[in-house]
Amino acid sequence: MENKTGKYFKYAFGEIVLVVIGILIALQINNWNERRKIKFKSQSYIDKIINDLTVDTLNINKLIIKTTDYKQNIDNYFDYFDSNDISQSSIDELIDSSDVLAMYLKYHPVNQAFKNMEFSENGSLLNEVQRDFLIELLSKQDEFEIINREFLDRAIDERKASEQLLGIPSNFYSKLKIETNIERKTQGLLHRHLHLKALKNLYDYIESRGQGINALSREAIVLLNK
Fold first, then answer.
1. What are the tens digits of pLDDT across the range 176-215?
2. Within a 13 Å sphere around the CA of 25, how many CA atoms are in the beta-carbon half?
3. pLDDT, tens digit, 9 for 90 and up, residues 101-125
4. SS3 letters for 74-106?
5. How far is the C-alpha of 99 from the C-alpha of 9, rounded, in Å?
6. Nearest 5°: phi and psi at 179?
7. Mapped to the 3 state alphabet, what secondary structure does 123-156 carry?
8. Closest Cα partner for 186 from 88, 76, 97?
9. Model confidence, pTM
């Protein structure tokens, strides 16, 4: 009887051990699967963020390239302006020379992947260094966009003011054979001048801040690839 009982307990104990081992193996497999899913999800976000950083860098480079020609046009006007005395006889020439080819360049940051990650509370998929760096970069991009918009608004306001004084197109009053007085022309020229000054400041800002953002984006890509 004792032998049978002992054999039963040994058998039962062996069964329990096998069940425990089975549970541990199942848990280990489950944990491995969860880690694999998390790693896949993390890498998916990282790939999207790197793509955003790459596109943002390309967009900034395009803006910087565009500023070169437009800045030269504006510089040519200021060189001409500085070489002439502002007098009644040269006002019309200065007004004509201030009508230069320039463009309103606007920066739109490309960072939706990281914003989506943060919004969905998946920021923990990145390590602390990566996440903190991207948060700082996001702040710099937002600042770039805001200041870019301020320069644009200033330039647009000055352009509108000049158009009210000088007409659209610039020969509007002359076609109607309406003589524009010197004070009106001078005020119109002043607003044209300030319009071009605002655009020059915009281009300088895009070049300097854009290069800084690009440098940070390159650092971010290196961090994300570690």
1. 555 667 788 889 899 999 999 999 999 999 999 999 999 9
2. 6
3. 899 999 999 999 999 988 887 777 8
4. HHHHHHHHHCCCCCCCCHHHHHHHCCCCCCCCC
5. 100
6. -80, 125
7. HHHCCHHHHHHHHHHHHHHHHHHHHHHHHHHHHH
8. 88
9. 0.79
